[in-house]
Structure formats: structure tokens, C-alpha cells
């Protein structure tokens, strides 16, 4: 049975490809799919076969230039400052504008289900006001406060003693307070959509029919108080439409893939140190810059290092022995799904959380992003020379392969649509 799905999407770097992977799967299954998204994402959306509708009044990026970034978190002096920029610049500041555009598209398309990213609080409010079932998508590990999860960006493992349990309890309260700052702008958007105010913004995501986590439970840390609407549906491993093609370089030295963020994080200096470190090792290195960096950012490079704007990581990983990365969820999960170990240099956002999970699994090591060339070189050499890292990555790959035998994300959306059809009482 064909259903109508409406997706909302903002240009969120690594968040975009997994969501568009679900869009493509829905189109391929015969459903009618519309995607509200930034202008810069229009070609990627249309490549899936879905209808693309640009944001009209909400923020709308026309390019990958850092000048158009809504958060500019690389300018923050502390992790807290970076979080506040995301909270105020994306999640809550423009919430009313996202709500208006989403409400207009719901009225036009009359979808059976609306699918919204976790940070799109305004789009969620409009969906709730329309009385249409919605699924929220989280494209990283589960780090929602108030559930016993480690705080976002902390890189903490589960508490092992009373002191660590107390630390988590205190930080959980602080995290809830920080998210609570968004209550007033969100309630203003909700009032415009004729919805009752909330005591805390996170009540809205807990009220959604489904909260789908796009990672592997074999990779993530179990959460003590997982809400009833949460479902782990596994990672999406598709490359972005702009990834292009790739041919393996000649030679039989170990292939090392280097991929830092596809969004701008002032990563040029770190990238240069990584390249210098790899230049003195007996490896073949491939550096993918992504759309936010200029091709000449590195200048001259060693002969064993190839620098390209992009390459399909899924194909490269079939040949790779190691990945050196900022530890974004997309790069990390693709690497582990291919059984490739990791050297992680987390720069912010959810990256410390992903790096901590890699280390906990024994599938790699982590360094500070300020690590010197010698430390990076030593870490790469150690992981390449130690079989246990590859073996641990292989175990995660086996677990993820078993989890990915069915498309659980699409199945959840189809089940929501079927439930709505059965009810025949949801107002439009």
C-alpha cells in the first residue's frame, strides 16, 4: 500500500545522508515522499526520487559555505558555548519559522506520517498540531538527558562507582536545565500552532509516536530509562549523492582513509598534522575534504597522500586498513560496519561520545584534536600493527550486518501509516 510521507531536513552535515537514505528507501518501496529542505540539499533530495520543497520562511542554506552556518560552533570557546549555539541557532531560535513552513506543507500534501529530525522542534510542533503521527530521527548515539544517558558530548562511559553515578546525576540536571532554556521560544511557536505550552521542551520529543535511533545497539551504551517511544533501527550506511567515484591507488601498502567533518569546524590545522604524520609512514593515504573545505587547503602533500574533494567511503572502506577521523557518527559507524578500526580525534558535538564507544569496544584509540604530529603517527602505527583492533571492529561489523537484514526504519514508518489508516479519526 502506498503512503504519503513528509520529511523535514536541515543541512546538518553527517545528519543528512542517513535521513536521505530512508527517503530513498521509502521512494523505492512505492511511497509518495516530499522533503522540506534547504536549497543546498535540493539536488540530493531529488536524486532519491522524492519531491523537494525548499524552506520558505525558515532558515535556508544555499551553499556549504561556513558563512551560512546557523550555529558557527567552531567560534565557541568551550563545549558549553558550542552547545548553546546549536540550541539557540537551530533547535529553538527559528522554531516558529520552521513550524509555519511545515504546517503549510502538511496542509498542501496531507501526509500520512511526518518525519522530523530531533533538533527540528518547530517542525515537530506543527506536526503535533495537525494531529498526524510523527517519527523523530536521531542520527547519533542516544544521549537524551533525563534518561540516565551520558551527557551529549561528554564522552563518558557508564558510571562504575558511586562518585561517577553522582557526577552523572548532577550533569543530567544541568543538561535538563540547559535544554529548558528553549522552552519560551518553543512555547511561542506552539502557541502560534494553537498548542498548549510545555513545562520542558523535551516533553515534545517524548510525546512523538516514535523516536528512531539510527545507530546500532551493539555500538551504543545501554540507557537505564529508555522512553517507551524509542526504537533502535540501525545505522544507514549510504554515501551522500556528492561522494562521486573512486579508484584504488596502486600499491599494496595499507590504505588509510582520512575523513574529518563534512561541515566546517576549522579543521584545516588538524588535517595538516594528520597528513604530515602519514607522510612518514609506509601507507597509502586518501584524504577526503568534504564540501566545506577548499581544494587547496593543504597545499603540497607527501607523495603517499592523495587529497580529493570527496570519495564514496563505503567503497573505499572495502580496501582500507584504518580510518583517521574526527569521530562523527557517520564516519565512525561506516568504518566499524566495514570492520575497519579507527584513530579518533574528536573536535566537538557528539564526536567524544562516538570516540568513547570505539575505545570501549576495543576497535580503536582516541587522541585530543590538539595532538602533535608524533602522537598521531604513533597512534596510526600502533593500530595498524595490533590485530586486536581489527578483530574488535570485525565483531561489531558482524553484529551490525545481522541487525541490518531488514529495513527497520522504513518498517516503523509504514507501521505508523497503517495505524493512522486504521484509526480513521486523525484530524487534518
- Counting helices, strands and paired strands, the structural category is alpha/beta
Continuous helix count: 15
Describe the global form. Answer: globular
Termini, distance in Å?
A: 20 Å
Give descriptors for this structure.
428 residues, alpha/beta, 15 helices, disordered C terminus
Describe the structure.
This protein is of the alpha/beta class. It contains 15 helices and 13 strands. The protein has helices spanning 16-28, 42-47, 79-92, 95-109, 121-130, 162-180, 183-192, 202-207, 268-279, 313-316, 329-337, 351-361, 373-385, 387-403, 408-423, and strands at 4-8, 32-37, 51-54, 113-117, 134-138, 210-213, 230-232, 255-259, 284-288, 305-308, 320-325, 342-344, 364-366. A seven-stranded parallel β-sheet has the order 3-2-1-4-5-6-7, with helices on both faces. Strand 8 (255-259), helix 9 (268-279) and strand 9 form a beta-alpha-beta unit. Helix 4 (95-109) packs across helix 5. The longest helix has 19 residues, at 162-180. It is globular, with a radius of gyration of 21 Å. The two termini are 20 Å apart. Residues 424-428 have low confidence and may be disordered.
Amino acid at each position: 500500500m502506498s503512503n504519503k510521507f513528509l520529511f523535514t531536513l536541515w543541512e546538518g552535515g553527517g545528519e543528512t545522508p542517513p535521513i536521505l537514505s530512508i527517503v530513498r528507501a521509502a521512494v523505492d518501496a512505492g511511497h509518495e515522499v516530499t522533503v522540506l529542505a534547504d536549497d543546498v540539499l535540493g539536488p540530493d533530495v531529488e536524486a532519491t526520487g522524492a519531491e523537494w520543497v525548499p524552506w520558505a520562511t525558515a532558515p535556508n542554506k544555499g551553499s556549504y559555505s561556513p558563512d551560512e552556518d546557523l550555529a558557527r560552533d567552531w567560534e565557541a570557546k568551550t563545549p558549553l558555548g558550542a552547545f548553546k549555539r546549536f540550541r539557540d541557532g537551530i533547535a529553538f531560535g527559528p522554531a516558529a519559522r520552521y513550524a509555519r513552513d511545515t504546517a503549510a506543507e502538511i496542509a498542501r500534501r496531507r501526509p500520512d506520517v511526518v518525519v522530523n529530525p530531533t533538533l527540528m522542534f518547530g517542525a515537530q510542533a506543527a506536526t503535533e498540531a495537525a494531529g498526524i503521527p510523527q517519527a523523530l530521527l536521531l542520527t547519533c548515539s542516544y544521549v537524551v538527558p533525563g534518561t540516565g544517558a551520558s551527557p551529549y558530548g561528554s564522552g563518558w562511559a557508564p558510571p562504575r562507582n558511586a562518585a561517577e553515578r553522582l557526577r552523572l546525576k548532577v550533569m543530567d540536571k544541568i543538561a535538563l536545565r540547559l535544554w529548558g532554556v528553549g522552552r519560551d521560544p518553543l512555547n511561542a511557536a506552539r502557541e502560534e500552532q494553537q498548542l498548549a505550552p510545555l513545562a520542558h521542551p523535551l516533553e515534545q520529543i517524548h510525546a512523538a509516536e516514535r523516536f528512531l535511533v539510527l545507530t546500532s545497539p551493539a555500538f551504543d551504551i545501554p540507557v537505564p530509562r529508555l522512553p517507551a517511544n524509542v526504537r533502535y533501527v540501525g545505522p544507514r550506511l549510504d554515501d551522500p549523492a556528492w561522494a562521486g567515484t573512486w579508484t584504488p591507488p596502486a600499491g599494496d601498502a595499507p590504505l588509510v582513509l582520512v575523513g574529518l567533518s563534512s561541515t566546517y569546524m576549522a579543521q584545516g590545522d588538524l588535517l595538516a598534522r594528520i597528513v604530515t604524520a602519514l607522510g612518514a609512514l609506509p601507507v597509502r593515504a586518501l584524504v577526503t575534504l568534504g564540501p566545506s573545505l577548499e581544494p587547496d587547503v593543504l597545499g603540497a602533500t607527501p607523495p603517499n597522500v592523495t587529497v580529493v574533494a570527496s570519495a564514496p567511503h563505503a567503497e573505499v572502506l572495502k580496501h582500507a586498513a584504518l580510518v583517521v577521523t574526527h569521530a562523527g557518527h557517520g564516519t565512525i559507524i561506516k568504518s566499524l560496519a566495514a570492520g575497519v578500526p579507527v584513530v579518533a580525534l574528536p573536535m566537538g558535538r557528539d564526536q567524544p561520545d562516538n570516540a568513547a564507544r570505539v575505545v570501549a569496544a576495543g576497535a580503536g584509540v582516541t587522541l585530543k584534536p590538539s595532538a602533535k604530529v608524533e602522537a598521531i603517527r604513533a597512534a596510526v602505527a600502533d593500530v595498524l600493527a595490533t590485530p586486536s583492533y581489527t578483530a574488535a571492529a570485525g565483531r561489531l561489523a558482524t553484529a551490525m550486518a545481522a541487525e541490518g537484514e531488514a529495513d527497520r526504519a522504513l518498517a516503523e514508518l509504514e507501521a505508523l501509516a497503517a495505524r493512522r489508516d486504521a484509526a480513521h479519526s486523525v484530524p487534518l
